Amino acid sequence: MDHKETLDSLLHEERVFRPLPQMLIEAGVNPQDLRAARELAEVDLCSYWEEAAEELDWFKKWEQVCDISDAPNYRWFSGARCNIVYNALDRHIETVNKNRLALIWEGEPGDSRQYTYYELYRAVNRFANGLKALGVGKGDRVVLYMPQLPETVIAMLACARIGAVHSMVFSGFSARLLRERVREVDPRVVVTVDGFYRNGQVIRLKEEVDRALLDDPAQNLESVVVVHRANVDVNMDSARDCWYEDLVRHERPHAPAEIMAADDPLFIMHTSGTTGKPKGLVHSHGGYMVGVHRTFKWVFDLKPTDIFWCSADPGWITGHSYLVYGPLLAGTTTVMYEGHSLYPQADRLWNIVSKYGVTIFYTSPTQIRTLMRFGHRYPEQHDLSSLRILGAVGEPFNTEAWLWMYENIGKGQCPVLDTWWQTETGMIMISPLPVSVLKPGSVTRPLPGIDADVVDAEGNPVPDGKGGLLVIKKPWPAMFSDVIGDREEVMAHYWKRIPGMFYAGDVARKDEDGYFWIQGRADDVLNISGHRIGTAEVECALTKHPQVAEAAVVGVVDKIKGQVAKAYVTLNHGFVESDDLHRELKEQVRRELGPIVIVRSIEFRDELPKTSSGKIKRTELG
Known about the structure:
By secondary structure, this protein is an alpha/beta fold.
């Protein structure tokens, strides 16, 4: 097949992928179960989520599953008493899971540590007691400025265990951004690390903390706890700073789990801020616990032998829900890696999959597109046969990257599950299951208990195939429960823009099978001659070209058409810019999306600017 024929086949990719027979036979949730769950949720939403809640342990059962009396301030499992850490640790050490591996951690230099559930339980209890010794109690806030370390997981769980509220600040953020978060959250304690390894460098995180706290920005801040990692010299304020190791050394390995109301706060998580000032959203113990547990088990078809790896950083909601809490609630083994995916070369992730026998790998489209640039030789150097399920989250997953992952990582034997959810939702909302029929580029259908739709600005459903606004019409348990700051303004943004519906801020469309296709953010939309075109659609068309690794599209002013598109493109390894490639890419967009979509110019770059969560920063382009 010549180059043009290859290009033509990619442009008209309409393949459908059906589950393998063995997957259907072994599925914990088969198509019939899924259909029955959808029917139950449509008829009686509360009964569906009550059934999910009964899989977990509660100190006191709920009086009401979902209180809608003050909508949209929904309250889940009113009157119930629980603790998410009791379900993530205590209930497992009373079973055969006690000596099962809970956490496998690998550092960038190649060092590693492993914790059984019992070992993790004892480590969490020691730090919980250490936090109590520092004066931290129920309702207090703790800021965690941490990379991917076991102590990060331990700190999250220790806070939740004693009823404190943790607020993670991504370790890639600057001192200025940390300072802003500390001022807003006003913690009693900050937990950080001396330094950590990233792409062969030592990142000195304690120095950033010192810069952030120069003028005492937090009224209640009393202590900074520092984990030894890179063994670099740091300044320690004797009145404020203490070493993690010194704090926990003499603490008892037993600490009771605080009895929490279901709607007591668990953590504060800020939105990514790509569309304005980040909003501090609060998730609570009960509803979050139920939503994350159910979706983790169902979407990833969990088996007793699974080794689960979510490559997300714990500084983001994906890391909270499906690196830490989801796997531990389910009693499985979770993998964590400290460093860069390209260090020391572009096979690091595949080396980890092979070394630990990872069975489920959950990552981002950006990560896959980054690795695609190096071709298939690196995956071929490692035994990836342990994998049985692949997944992605965070942004629209273009068809070419989906197919590359399916063919080169899963070897055509693993379903690729493209999932949609947000910081605001707390849990996966729209996703296939391993038994679903897959369409590359589609997140398929909403999960049971999720009433999603695509509507116009007035809330009216749009016809199949037409773009519109993605909304959620009914409450779900892992939804954020409170806001740090101006609650009324934030709630109005999500719930009053289209009255009675949760406004997700994404543009999407549904096809004739009810499958959802995420097209990008609502504010990432081109208006060309009155036609609204998602930038993600144009980017997807560009990345279908075999030479393109990534693409970003912005709108530029046109006197006649209002807007036209300008594209920024990075190429796969070994390819270079040419006039022929310019023409091919413009023609590709035209053929893929129609003549209405005009790409005025294409600029080739070595890399595209991204937020710390891996999203392209279009505001820095153009």
